[in-house]
Amino acid sequence: MGQNVLPRPNRDERSGRHFPLLVLLFAGSGCAALIYEVVWFELLELIVGSSAISIGILLAAFMGGLCVGSLCLSRLVPARAHPLRVYALLEIGIGVLGILIFFGLPFAGGLYSAAGGKGMTGLLFRGLLSAVCLLPPTLMMGATLPAVARWVESTPMGMSRLGFLYGGNTAGAVCGSLLAGFYLLRVHDVQTATVVAATINLLVALVALGTSALSPHAIPAEEPKKPAFAARARRGAVLMTIALSGMTALAAEVVWTRLLSLVLGATVYAFSLILAVFLLGLGIGSGAGSLMGRRVASPRAALGWCQVLLIAGIAWGGASIMLILPYSQLGTGWTGTIAGKFLADFVKCACAVLPAAFLWGASFPLALAAIADGEQDPGRLAGAVYAANTAGAIAGALATSLLIIGWLGTQGAQRIMIVLAAAGAALMLGQKAPDHFAAGWSRSRRAVWIAVIVVLAACLGWTTPPVPGLLVAYGRNAAEFMDVQGDFLYVGEGVNSSMAVSRQPDGVLMYHNAGKVQASSVSRDMGLQRMLGHLTTLVPEHPRSVLVIGCGAGVTAGAVSIDPAVERVTIAEIEQLVPRVVAAYFGPHNFEVVRNPKVRLEIDDARHFVSTTGERFDAITSDPFDPWVKGAAMLYTKEFFELLKRRLNPGGVVTVFVQLYQSNVEAVKSEFATFFEAFPNGTVWVNTTEEGEGYDLVLLGRLEPAPIDLEAIARRLSRPQYAEVKRSLREISFFSTEDLFATFGGTAADLKPWLQDAQINRDRNLRLQYLAGLGLDLYQQDSIYREIMSYRRFPDGLFVGTPERLGALRAKMEAVR
Fold this sequence. Notes:
The chain is of the alpha/beta class. The protein folds into three domains: 8-219 and 229-462, MFS general substrate transporter like domains (Growth Hormone, Chain: A, Up-down Bundle), CATH 1.20.1250; 469-513, no CATH class; 522-815, Vaccinia Virus protein VP39 (Rossmann fold), CATH 3.40.50. It is built from 27 helices and 14 strands. The strands form three sheets. An eight-stranded mixed β-sheet has the order 7-6-5-8-9-11-10-13, sandwiched between helices. A four-stranded antiparallel β-sheet has the order 1-2-3-4. It has a two-stranded parallel sheet with strand order 12-14. The chain starts with 10 loop residues before the first helix and ends with a helix. Mean pLDDT is 88; it is low at 1-13.
């Protein structure tokens, strides 16, 4: 590969001619990278699970690749190689690997399902799979900035220009986040998204190659000198500061994403908006930092002052999310349409996140300018800063998501972030350096400013509020419940979610998670939860072993556990605080299920547990989060229902909860049609309010088509050992076998005309979470219920029994609207 050697002083001049184009190319790289990140995480979560541990492993593998790639480029690729050609080859490699990963993941998933599992072995396999899939392309992603860094001089002005590339890359990432979350995955699927990202990589590579042909590379005339000890010490301080900056940035993203998902609703759209706002702030800040780094006398001092301002920015972000945004009217005038709602949510995110994100973005180019000396390899300098920032980000994200929130809550996490920002500020402003201030500062004056920083951090950290119980309980609707009477018995933040238990003045218990009531002791909720459990054990002939997906308040699991025929109950729950705390509070309503000796708790993502366990069950019941909660749709896909079928013993039954409230007809149709794809003989069982209005329902599927023997069920319920089951049914107004089965709402065949336009929820599109996310603020449950019931007819052949019992069942069904 021939090169034209130019004098070093001309490098910045020649690179400047095409620098705006290079910024656009980096924007394309960022767009493709974010699309890949969304797609890869979504696909890998289907395999290794979506618990905090699994997400942490995926994040470590992804960002670890970026870190190592940024360090290795300058050591593996000689300085004489044309930076734009190296960049182009990296982009081609990323695109090729992106396609290979997409088609290779099914094979990797099959291998993992056979070998992965619980405990340390399972964690090792999760890490190995994540590393094999993510490290190769992310190594190349991390190498792109150091590669192009050799296109500029290693002077403060030259290095600070790289901040524009970083900003362009981040701006592209904003576009990628919104493009993936609001269009590619909502309308198409992961295959289309992958092809789009790979196409962007190819276009970027072609333009970079064409530009390289027009712009010869200025090869350094001599090997860079090894910096002196003092210079290395000052560089080490800068790298430590930018590492602390990355640590606080990713820690804040973890904490604020969790809190903002309560404020906005934990939909896939909310997560895309939060990420886009965070990246937007980084991009704008990076551009501003690049301009500042070229003009200020001391980039080190500017970097230090950025960290001082970050102390206030972090404090503002947390306080505004918890104390202002949930109760503000900001953007409420726009919420009449879906687009207006998203715009209002975007503005709320921006108010809280942008100030700190701007400062984190500005820190990166200032750090580049601060370590530039004009004599070192710019690729190695850029790689060192990028690697330090990324290494700090990995540590911050993992420590916060896996340890700190579970131990100290979001309040403690934000206090630690403030302390770390103060440490970075003190490291820069408290150190004597040649470029520190034009007039220079005495040691005593530096000590005074360090004391001021410590006092500021202490005051703002002390005043950081804990997460309000009202926000945990009611999320985006917290303002509507400010005057509601009641006591919070428990408010807690687990590794995976935040939850609360409240008692109303009338004695009603409520379990809150994901910013809404997930279960309660009111009749409509108890009716569904117990009906779900009792249908699961009464329909199969021999329900000896039952799997319950999602513990919640434990009422469904409790209804399952009191059936005398049931010998073993396995509860798969992702958050350990739920069975330990929430189910304990609901003990009088769930038959003290967590203390039942036949019950075994598996703290694991349900999909991961089902895919890796070798057990089979006589019945499985699934009561996961609302399908609009990001990730919950993974438990409603055709592939997951087929997986449940493979875990059933002959004669086995699967039941699934479906909500009608806070949903829309498209989402409900998708849930029905997807379930019926796996269980063509499936049936629907409805739960109504005291006024007879539709509220929620149960889907029931059987491994083999078989009638429901009403006589056999009635005989079982008449036995003395079933007295507790009968009492449980009476408490939800089912006084006979006919009362229970009169909740029949239709068969798959009955509803086929209604489901003609339904969209099937598959692993490759997770269509349900995009449909359900649009129904978060809707309460159309009764109209959806009426549509379903309009197709109902008495099911010939579904029930067997005496003519008298069948006649009584028909009469009760006709009495139901």
